[in-house]
UniProtKB/TrEMBL annotation:
Coiled-coil intervals, chain numbering: none
PROSITE patterns from the UniProt entry: LIPOXYGENASE_3
InterPro entries in alphabetical order: LipOase, LipOase_C, LipOase_C_sf
Keyword Oxidoreductase: yes
Keyword Metal-binding included in the entry's annotation: yes
GO MF entry, a single one: metal ion binding
Organism placement in taxonomy: Eukaryota, Viridiplantae, Streptophyta, Embryophyta, Tracheophyta
Residue stretches making up the Lipoxygenase domain: 1-129
Example GO BP: lipid oxidation
This protein's name: Lipoxygenase domain-containing protein
Keyword list, A-Z: Dioxygenase, Metal-binding, Oxidoreductase
Length: 129
């Protein structure tokens, strides 16, 4: 069965939507296989490698010999670390109830660093897809 758009008013498909809404709705969503492929692709692309370098970090300290650039980058790295510390502290603040929501899962999406795997956190220094 091919996926299709929500039908326009007055069409034969719209009459089916009025008489059998569940059947008509199911024709508009992806098949189970397409959904599984999409979710799998997102999960694979969202995983962090064990050797991943994050925002404010470099894989090598010898990336440039320009002392001014190194100093600016080190200051940037410190600010990124401060942002991460602030996010973690805000997650602990019970007065900020919107930080975790009703399921009590802390906000982590913009935490700059991460561990290996699918973590819901970490901003890679660069990406390639």
């Amino acid at each position: 069965m091919d996926r299709r758009l929500i039908p326009e008013v007055g069409s034969a498909e719209y009459k089916e939507l009025e008489s059998k809404p569940e059947k008509a709705y199911l024709k508009t969503v992806n098949s189970m296989l397409q959904t599984l492929l999409g979710v799998s692709l997102i999960e694979i692309l969202s995983r962090h490698a064990s050797d991943e370098v994050y925002l404010g970090q470099r894989a090598s300290i010898e990336w440039t010999s320009d002392k001014a650039a190194v100093e600016v980058f080190e200051n940037f790295g410190k600010k990124v670390f401060e942002v991460e510390s602030r996010i973690i502290e805000r997650n602990k603040d019970v007065n900020l109830k919107n930080r975790s929501g009703p399921v009590n899962v802390p906000y982590t999406l913009l935490l700059p660093s991460s561990t290996e795997g699918l973590t819901g956190r970490g901003i890679p220094n660069s990406i390639s897809i």
